[in-house]
Structure formats: structure tokens, C-alpha cells
Amino acid sequence: MDKEKTIEVDYIARVEGRGAINIDISKDGEIKDLKFRIYEPPRFFESFLIGRKYDEVMELTSRICGICPVAHQITALRAVENALQIEPSQQTRDLRKLLAISAHIQSNVLSMYFLSLPDLMGFESIIAMAKNHPDIVKRGLRLKKLGNDITELIGGRAVHPVTAIVGGFTKIPSKNKMMNIKKRLKEAKQDAYHTVDLFSDVEIPDFKRECEHIAVSDPNEYAINNGKIRSTHGLNINEMEYRDYISEKQVPHSTALHSHVKTRDSFMVGPLPRVNINFDQLSSDAKDAAKRSGFSFPNFNPFVSHLARAIELVHDIDESIEIIDRLPFKDDSRITFTVKAGFGAAVTEAPRGMLYHSYDIDNNGVIRGADIVPPTAHNANNIEKDLHEFVPTLLHLPIDEITLRCEMLIRAYDPCISCSTH
After folding, report:
1. pLDDT tens column, 183-232
2. Whole-angstrom Cα distance, residue 30 to residue 2?
3. Cβ 373 vs Cβ 353: under 8 Å
4. Of 72, 98, 201, 258, which is least surrounded by CB within 10 A?
5. What pTM did the predictor assign?
6. Domains and CATH numbers, the chain
7. Pairing of β 367-373 and β 353-361
8. Residue 360 pairs with which residues in a beta bridge?
9. In angstroms, rounded to a whole number, what is the distance separating the alpha carbons of residues 111 and 300?
């Protein structure tokens, strides 16, 4: 390389929120400076939750994000319930998991088909791609609508659902409406298989970095709303131990904090860590689809996150049908409890990865302290580490192509920048 190179992206396209990339490369090919710069203004959710009542938390925190409100709502509910020592019914837990799965379907389909697939198929946008591949785009729209409709049926509306409350639901869906959803889920299975085939066949960069992967895990199910925190480097802790092992630091170029495992380094959360850590808990059809894809797991190429989302889509359809089949549709959607002082934490798997909430509540049910760490706050540090190793492999390419590949790496993580700053 005969001259210095500078990569500047002032506004990363096709991600949620506002972020930038700044990279300076010397004549010798060394990275002099690299920043994944997040400049989305924080809204200070943790501060304004103090003084609010325990039963307002899930409504307020769902407004952190319009793409993943369900994840914040369920995580907040579980943290509050842990603080108040409330144990919801099995039906409530099942409905919440189905609600969470519907949000995963919505978000992961959006990421795969509409945010990242244009890159992988050589188009500048989904609009440009639709002219040449209308059937693929229509498939993505069908799957996205299915996720939206399940969220709306259980949650009362597709964005910022309203029926989930501390201890249960204000209303549960009818059996007839659920049976209609079950029929649509069965019909969507072929679309899910085609999605796995599509993301198995598209060309992705040959890049690997064996960083630590972390996911919520349960030996008895593919964990979303409950489980222990496990990693590829031996971490195995419960949600109340989160702050004993995972820390955050402020960096000058980002309004999102950077996370790391204490005594270690950055880590990755999201669909790829979930599949890597919880592969054995996938449905049999999802495991078969993964094996047919030609990729092996565990896998440490962040671009394989697209395929991991597709594999999860097959599983999500299978598990949704199983949940619907075992729902009793009985009126136990609310339970009685006593408000008292306590501290509770919860970790769940949002579509983009592990999400942490904790709340300190006084005897009157008023919030005394709040702590929220969204998936992209977990991933921001690791995205920079990936870019540090990825960029040197691209220096033989024109600057425009290097820039595009860097953006593609970030889109593979599917960052939710508004969440990360909250």
C-alpha cells in the first residue's frame, strides 16, 4: 500500500439509530485509529425510572426501542417479579415466550431480508432488489407480517404491546384465534426452509475471530426468557450474578457504554452465540436445516449471524406450534401478590442478544434504582475488535469496497443503537 487510507462513514445505513465509522490506516497497512462511533443522544431511562411505581416500569422501558419493545417489556417484568418474589403461572410463562418468539421473528426477518440481504445480493437497497427478486422480498414480507400478527394477538398491538403486566396478562387470546395462528405457522415452515437455503448460498466474507460468545442457556429448552448466562469461555452464572462478572466502561467516542467480562475482554451476544451455545436445544428440524446448510457450529465468523437467524426462524416456528398446542386457555392470567421491598435482576435473549435489567424497589413499590444493559451495549466493544482484525484483510480492495465490507460487518450484528444508549 503506497499511501494512507481513511475510511469515514458518517451515518451507517440500514441499522437502527445513529452511528459512524472512522478508520485511519498507515502506509504500512497498520490501523492508526479505529472507532465505531455512536452519537445517538441518551434518554436517561435509568434515571427517570427512579421514583416511578413498579407496575409502570414495563410500559416505560418498552419505549426504549420501537423494534424490540417486547424484549424490554418481558425483561423488566421478570426483574420486577424477581424483586417482589412473584411466580407467574405456567400459562403466563408460555404466552410470554410465544410473545418473545414473535418479536424474534419480526426483528430477525427485518434484519435478514431488508437490512442485510441487499448487501449480500449486490443491491444498494431492498427497493432495488425487489425489481429483480420480487418473490424473495414477498417471502420476507409474509414472515414479517406473521411475527407482527402474533405480537398483536397476544400483546394487544404489534408495537409497544400493552397486555403483559406484573404477574400475568390483562387479557389472553382466544383458542380460535390461536388455532388460526397455528395454521399460518405451519404454512410458514416452507418459507423458513427457503430462508435457510438462501442464507446458506449467499457469499459472505471469509473472516473469523474466536472471541467469547455469551448467551442465556437452559438445558431443557432453547432459552429466550429464562436461563443461566453461559459462554464459550466457561462462564456459567445466574442472572443475579451478572454484575459480579460483566462490567461497562465509558469511551470518549460513544454515547453507548462498552462491555467486557471482568478479567477478560469484549464478547459477542446475538443469534450466532445463541446457536453456538444452545445448538442441542434447537428443534430437530432446525438442527437438520443447520446441518444441510454446509456450515458447522460452533462458528466464529460474525457474518454467519445471518444464517443463525434463519436457523432460529425454523426453530421459532416449531416451538410456537408446540406452545400453542399445550396452552390450556384458562383464566389464570392474573395472580395476587404483596408489594414489598426487594431487588431483582433478569436476563433474557432479545433478538439482538442478551439483555439485562435490574430494579431496586422500596416498600411502597417505588423504584429506587435501575440498571439496563441492552445487546448492542454488550456488542459495541466487540464490533470494534472485529473491525480491527477484519480491515487488514481488505487492504487489497478499493476504498469503496473496504467501506462497504465494514458496514456489512456492522449490519451482521444488527445493532440497535437507540437501545445501546437508552
Report:
1. 999 999 999 999 999 999 999 999 999 999 999 999 999 999 999 999 99
2. 12
3. no
4. 201
5. 0.97
6. 5-38 (no CATH), 45-421 (1.10.645.10)
7. antiparallel
8. 343, 369
9. 19
